[in-house]
Design goal:
With 293 residues, the protein is α+β, with helices and mostly antiparallel strands. The chain has two domains: 3-178, Jelly Rolls; 183-292, Orthogonal Bundle (Arc Repressor Mutant, subunit A). It contains twelve helices and twelve strands. It has helices at residues 99-103, 107-116, 126-145, 150-173, 176-179, 183-198, 205-212, 216-227, 231-249, 254-260, 266-277, 281-292, and strands at 3-4, 11-12, 23-30, 37-38, 43-44, 47-54, 56-61, 64-69, 72-76, 82-86, 90-97, 121-123. The strands form three sheets. The chain has a five-stranded antiparallel beta sheet. Strand 7 and strand 8 form a beta hairpin. The longest helix is centred in the middle third of the chain and has 24 residues, at 150-173. The chain starts with a strand and ends with a helix. It comes from Chitinophaga skermanii.
């Protein structure tokens, strides 16, 4: 796969490695050769869903380290930095797709689907595996046979596949945000998508209220009714999460990270980061790397 240049963390472009396609599905088998397989940290410019059918490994997502054992599903959003270390013979099915691939159908539904990705690891039962493979088998057959209108069929089956992952996740995590369809929850989903896409440039609640055509007070009330927090907390959490990713994965100075995240200067970034985490950026970087490395 090719990477997009000048990204602080390597960004793998789906279109570059698939002749312009916005959707990839493949089944892979990795055989242990005594050395293990370590994937360098990177991001995708699309979503990925992997079904681990056999084997085990270590899954690094942002600054968290998780051990995974088949059968399980791994869900990764475009902004998340990750790498895998496979420990033994592994077999998995992986689906990659861009946001635009599903926006062709419905942006509001994608906002709902993104809630599914909040649970990055889902353990599966045998019945769950068979259910999910029934969808991936159809998508793989459509790609292979290359019949007319295959993209329409793949989009609809992919939608059902993601919904099935969400249904399984709800059973495990009891995610009420995914199952609810109230006006407040739907607006919150839209707000979260906007924050994810604009957090570097737009940092005030009023910025997002304008995008959603509501008042800042109404936006805060809506977020509080859904999450118990306010809109500024959601914005700040996104900015801090991205700062933590850069501090953990990259060899950049605090000044460079502050510039990348559009802070006025590194002094303000230091104060902002410590206010929200209790640590200076340098202390956090040292502590988290000692913990997971």
């Amino acid at each position: 796969m090719e990477t997009v240049k000048n990204a602080p963390i390597p960004l793998i472009s789906l279109k570059d490695c698939s002749a312009g396609s916005e959707f990839i599905i493949k089944r892979m088998v990795y055989t242990e050769d005594g050395t293990g397989y370590v994937e360098p940290p990177h991001r995708h410019d699309g979503y990925s869903i992997g079904i681990l059918l056999k084997g085990s490994g270590t899954f690094y997502l942002d600054f968290e380290k998780k051990h995974i054992k088949a059968p399980a599903v791994l869900l990764i959003t475009p902004e998340q930095v990750h790498k895998h270390e496979l420990h033994e013979d592994c077999e998995f099915v992986t689906v990659y797709f861009t946001r635009d691939f599903l926006l062709t159908e419905s942006e509001s539904m994608l906002s709902c689907w993104e809630c599914v990705f909040s649970n990055n690891k889902i353990q599966l039962s045998h019945d769950h595996v068979q259910e999910l493979l029934s969808y991936t088998d159809i998508m793989m057959r459509e790609v292979r046979d290359n019949k007319p209108r295959k993209s329409l069929i793949i989009r609809n089956v992919l939608s059902a596949f993601i919904t099935a992952c969400g249904r399984i996740s709800v059973d495990e995590h009891k995610d009420e945000h995914w199952t609810s369809e109230t006006t407040q929850v739907n607006m919150f989903r839209q707000f979260k998508v906007l924050v994810d896409n604009n957090y570097k440039q737009q940092v005030q609640v009023s910025d997002y209220a304008n995008m959603l055509h509501v008042t800042p007070g109404h936006l805060n009330d809506m977020v509080k009714s859904v999450t118990g927090t306010n809109a500024k907390f959601i914005i700040d959490t996104k900015r801090i999460t991205e700062a933590k990713r850069l501090l953990y994965w990259q060899q950049h100075s605090v000044k460079e990270i502050a510039w990348h995240l559009n802070f006025e200067d590194d002094g303000y970034f230091n104060r902002y980061f410590k206010k929200h985490t209790g640590y200076t950026p340098a202390t956090f970087q040292k502590t988290i790397r000692e913990k997971y490395n």
